[in-house]
Amino acid sequence: MSEAALAETLASGNATFFSRSRQSLWKKGESSGHFLKVHSVRADCDADVLLLLVDPAGPSCHTGRQNCFFYQVSAEQPLAEQAETHAPFLLELEAVIRARASSSADKSYTRSLLDGGPAKIGAKLREEADELARAIADESDERVASEAADLLFHMLVGLRSRGLDVRTVLEQLAGRFGQSGHAEKAARAPK
């Protein structure tokens, strides 16, 4: 990314790069429609590497992959292709939930939850949390994973009902990183 590409990225909110092959600025998605909406740009300690936190509109890589970083580099095998990571799937699931919010309740379980409002979503969250707790206590690992998936799905629906997304939750967790859970909880102001 050149200085001009960074300036355009910050001004437009869409990832823009300097294409060495074209010798010009190139906005990701201008031909494919798979834009990268930029939430934040971070620099490393030397300010010579940038990391963009984005919401992709479709696959980010020209190969059709969710992102371009699917090679594992090691001494034994310089470029070993890896399976997709699960983080993009979580964002994909969130996008499906967002789309289903526009569906009809008779066709979409998600829409029926959203139509039921906080009471219905809250009841499902309590039910799924209880089922997960019971599974953790005395059921198989498969059941624990299944109940955790149910709880996570219903949490995402609850966030959608408030117009929030999983990144908001991850930012909260990141802000707590490196501090004692007891100290963090004690520092929270009562709501």
Describe the structure.
The protein is of the alpha+beta class. It folds into 2 domains: 3-61, Phosphoribosyl-AMP cyclohydrolase (Ubiquitin-like (UB roll), Roll); 87-178, Orthogonal Bundle (Helix Hairpins). Helices cover 49% and strands 14% of the residues. The protein has helices spanning 3-12, 87-100, 109-138, 141-161, 166-176, 181-187, and strands at residues 16-19, 24-27, 36-43, 50-56, 71-72, 80-81. It has a two-stranded antiparallel sheet with strand order 1-2. A two-stranded antiparallel sheet has the order 3-4. Strands 5-6 form a two-stranded antiparallel sheet. Strand 3 (36-43) and strand 4 (50-56) form a beta hairpin. Helix 2 (87-100) crosses helix 4 and helix 3 (109-138) packs antiparallel against helix 4 (141-161). The chain is globular, with a radius of gyration of 21 Å. The model has no long low-confidence stretch (mean pLDDT 87).
